[in-house]
Amino acid sequence: MKILKDILYKVSLNSTIGNMDRRISELVFDSRKVVEDSVFVAISGTQVDGHVFIDAALDKGAKVIVCETLPEVLHEEITYVQVVNSARALGIMAANYYENPSEKLKIVAVTGTNGKTTTATLLYQLFIEMGYVVGLLSTVENKISGKVIPSTHTTPDALSMQSLLKEMVDEGCTHCFMEASSHAIVQERTAGIKLTGAVFTNITHDHLDYHGTFDEYIKAKKKLFDELPKDAFALINADDKRAMVMLQNTKATRQSFGLKYPADFKAKILTNALEGLELDINGRQVWFRMIGEFNAYNLLGVLATAVLLGEDEEEILMQLSKVEGAQGRFDKIAIAGITAIVDYAHTPDALENVLKTIQGVRSGGEQVITIVGCGGNRDKTKRPIMAKIATQLSDKVILTSDNPRDEDPMTILKEMEAGINPVDFKKTMIIEDRREAIKTAGIMANKGDIILIAGKGHETYQEIKGVKHLFDDRAVVKELLNLLNQ
Ligand SMILES: CC(=O)N[C@H]1[C@@H](OP(=O)(O)OP(=O)(O)OC[C@H]2O[C@@H](n3ccc(=O)[nH]c3=O)[C@H](O)[C@@H]2O)O[C@H](CO)[C@@H](O)[C@@H]1O[C@H](C)C(=O)N[C@@H](C)C(=O)N[C@H](CCC(=O)O)C(=O)O
Ligand SMILES: Nc1ncnc2c1ncn2[C@@H]1O[C@H](COP(=O)(O)OP(=O)(O)OP(=O)(O)O)[C@@H](O)[C@H]1O
Ligand SMILES: N[C@H](CCC[C@H](N)C(=O)O)C(=O)O
Ligand SMILES: [Mg+2]
Fold first, then answer.
1. How confident is the model at residue 484 (pLDDT cuts 50, 70, 90)?
2. In which pathway does it act (predicted)?
3. pLDDT at 205 > cutoff 90
4. Was 112 annotated as part of a binding site?
5. By alpha-carbon position, which residue is closest to atom 39 of ligand 1?
6. pLDDT of residue 163
7. Would you say residue 140 has pLDDT above 90?
8. How many angstroms from the chain centroid is the CA of residue 213?
9. Which long-range contacts (CB under 8 A, 24 or more apart) does 4-11 make?
């Protein structure tokens, strides 16, 4: 059992009413999870205001209420803690509750529109190769020294995250590499973490549904750097237009990487092929298994991070050349002379990068057939842009369903279609059923052709109206190409 005032250490308080030395059982922010003697933190969310569940939490046995607005009726036996920001309070309290695990680990958070999972996973794989016991928090999976813990978010909620960090400490991890999504930063899921460093990959169009404007989205990413401690490093991709903004108010040591503009860590692409990348780094020529210019950035960001963590550059390059990166990112599946590429590109920039990479490595005569959709209940403004990019950079395009969630799939597809130039209509088809779309691409493809299946990467489900149906692009394309080529 913990003492209330201990877990409130460093939380900005407005007022307190009642016993602060109280012993508490659990810390919860969902009234449905309250047990006897819990602390319930009321957070105002995107769907409901958690303050309306204070009575429900009390009915279930909560003895402490942490909130921004005090309820009208106060109960004598209950402790009320009024805070400036409940979400932030939860982050700090969760860290205290789990004994501040981030102070016992070197944690690096990666933020940016694209490349977070790739960068964090490469760092995890690199540090494992270098002999460390390491943790990973990512969109694809969470890992603690090799053990996989399924991931529900890119960045877990503050409680789950601090609990995972505590487990990392208990398992003897020295480092943790994690993704910091813009949602998580705004929602203060990262508030209680002491970072050793933060990495900015890039910022392009995404999540405008949540942040409202591109400026707000930039501000969300910048907040991570604003809050870094003085002894941390702030590493940016110098070639991104908005990178300098990230460093404007940081107290951390400023560092940069890039292929074009002056930077602390530089590289040059010597070869960019379907087999991998050859880079020149400080006069050393090194081959990597990753494909595409965007992965040159990811690799360079990883190299810079590892150097800033005190590792030897030569050793890093030797081990980094062996690693493969995250699942579902440019996964190549070759069957009967046809190459299928499954990739998680779900933003306009990612789709453009992946298609340009394919255009850059193709031999010329073959067709590039792209299958793409856009997620429901997510940024609608990216839909027409992604469809336009797909048609401009492919020979044939099949628009299909991604995760429609609560939306009508045909409405999403019509919104995508609206972005296509009329001259490109003849190369475009709409096939709502994703399996049928992949099958049709398989039928259209000839030997040598490339099929890009974009948007879902590692995902093993398709989310339709709250139900996750099993669906794995990699398994489906393998099965169908094998069947078609029997
Ligand atoms: C839009 C969004 O980010 N929502 C996240 C947010 O929930 P919310 O603000 O909508 O919560 P809410 O339903 O309004 O509830 C408000 C409060 O009331 C509480 N409540 C609610 C009901 C009840 O009966 N009792 C109760 O106490 C809730 O526990 C909550 O504390 O806080 C929850 C707890 O941390 C998250 O699980 C939830 O993620 C939802 C499921 C989600 O889909 N999030 C996505 C968009 C997301 O976070 N994505 C990013 C990655 C994006 C990227 O690719 O870059 C991620 O980090 O995964
Ligand atoms: N540095 C990069 N710049 C631009 N695009 C990239 C970069 N790295 C990866 N991509 C593209 O973006 C897709 C998603 O990559 P990744 O999963 O690493 O990003 P993420 O930032 O973790 O995404 P999410 O926000 O969904 O967690 C990849 O499949 C690839 O198409
Ligand atoms: N982490 C991203 C993933 C999008 C992946 C795409 N398949 C979709 O469902 O939109 C999000 O939650 O917006
Ligand atoms: Mg990710």
1. confident
2. Cell wall biogenesis; peptidoglycan biosynthesis
3. no
4. yes
5. 153
6. 98
7. yes
8. 20
9. 4/39, 4/64, 4/79, 4/81, 6/96, 7/39, 7/93, 7/96, 7/97, 8/81, 8/89, 8/93, 8/96, 9/92, 9/96, 10/92, 10/96, 11/81, 11/83, 11/88, 11/89, 11/92, 11/93
329 alpha carbon to ligand 4 midpoint, in Å?
Answer: 10
Length of the chain: 486
Tell whether the model's pLDDT for residue 326 goes beyond 90: yes
**One-letter amino acid for residue 366 of the chain:** E
Residue 238, token pair as written in the block: 């110098």
Is position 485 annotated in a ligand binding site? Answer: no
CA nearest ligand 2 atom 11, residue: 350
Average pLDDT over residues 84-101: 98
The pTM for the full model equals 0.95
Query: Over 90: is that where the pLDDT of 281 sits?
Result: yes
CB atoms within 10 A of CB 72: 5
* Helix orientation angle between 348-361 and 293-308, rounded to the nearest 10 degrees: 110
Q: How far is the centre of ligand 1, averaged over its atoms, from the C-alpha of 28 (Å)? A: 14
Which pLDDT score, from 0 to 100, does residue 421 have?
Answer: 97
User: What angle separates helix 382-392 from helix 348-361, to the nearest 10 degrees?
Assistant: 10
**Best residue for ligand 3 mutational test, from 139, 179, 346, 465 (most atoms within 8 Å of Cβ):** 346
Q: Which ligand is nearest to the CA of 375?
A: 3
* Chain CA centroid to CA 284, Å: 31
All structural domains of the chain, each given as residue ranges with its CATH number in brackets, are 2-97 (3.40.1390.10), 99-321 (3.40.1190.10), 331-484 (3.90.190.20)
* DSSP code, position 47: S
Please indicate if the annotation marks 16 as binding a ligand. Answer: no
Please report which confidence band the pLDDT of residue 145 belongs to, taking 50, 70 and 90 as the band edges.
confident
Q: Would you give the end-to-end CA distance of the chain in angstroms?
A: 63
The predicted pLDDT at position 1 comes to 81
Q: What is the pLDDT of residues 356-395, one digit of tens each?
A: 999 988 888 899 999 999 999 999 999 999 999 999 999 9
For range 9-32, the mean pLDDT: 97
Residues 6+ apart with CB under 8 A from 435: 471, 476, 480
**Is 157 known as a binding-site position?**
no
pLDDT at position 262 over 90:
yes
Percent of the chain with pLDDT over 90: 95
To which residue do tokens 């940069």 refer?
256
What integer pLDDT is reported at residue 31 of this predicted model?
Answer: 98
Taking a C-beta distance cutoff of 8 angstroms, is the pair 344, 292 a contact?
A: no
d(CA 161, ligand 2 centre) in Å: 22
Integer-rounded Cα Rg, in Å, for the chain is 24
Hey, what amino acid is at 359?
Q
Classify each residue of 340-354 as buried b or exposed e, where b means 16 or more C-beta atoms within 10 Å of its C-beta.
Answer: bbbbbbbbbbbbbbb
